[in-house]
């Protein structure tokens, strides 16, 4: 696959991440198509997409949450989870790690879809956030879907504010994992930088767009993206 195709995959992936999560549906297969092994493609993909969530959160200043005690705690849990997940990836056999991805994505999508009907439910968000962030460090596909599903069960019901908080927490988990991958020398830099360039532009553009899209549209994008991701990875890895 040529660099122009990788750039386009990064651009679209950055926009998708900013709006709902799921950029890996585009960028991970694109990196695999260059001949990279699954683990190196996964690590390179994490590096390439790391800034897109953060740029989206910065761009969507209207819905960005305040830096209060809750947000600081959530960021800390996300960083810890990202480190644990990336460490787990490094010690597992490389051929086995994608097998559970379709299950995780499918459950997260279903949870997000029924979240409006679960307003009376109270969940242990701290353990859930830690596990979700560990998953993000482990593989990262649809981390945004999983975090959105978790946060949608919290006190804030506005999908746009949930999306902005999701972008911040996904950034924390992914950047923590990236530090591990870079330290271990698992990144294929030429392909990564190309996808990264597209993802930075796409993440910023997606953040600017997301602030103008109705909450119902954001929810529909998340659910549709989750369904597509479930089907895609089930077909690819099972």
UniProtKB/TrEMBL annotation:
The chain crosses the membrane at residues 75-92, 99-118, 130-154, 217-235. Its main location: membrane. It comes from the Bacteria. Signal peptide: none annotated. Keywords: Cell membrane, Membrane, Transmembrane, Transmembrane helix, Transport. It is a multi-pass membrane protein. GO terms for cellular component: plasma membrane. Pfam families: TauE. InterPro entries: TM_pro_TauE-like, TSUP. It is found in: Cell membrane. Belongs to the 4-toluene sulfonate uptake permease (TSUP) (TC 2.A.102) family. This is Probable membrane transporter protein. It comes from Actinoplanes octamycinicus.
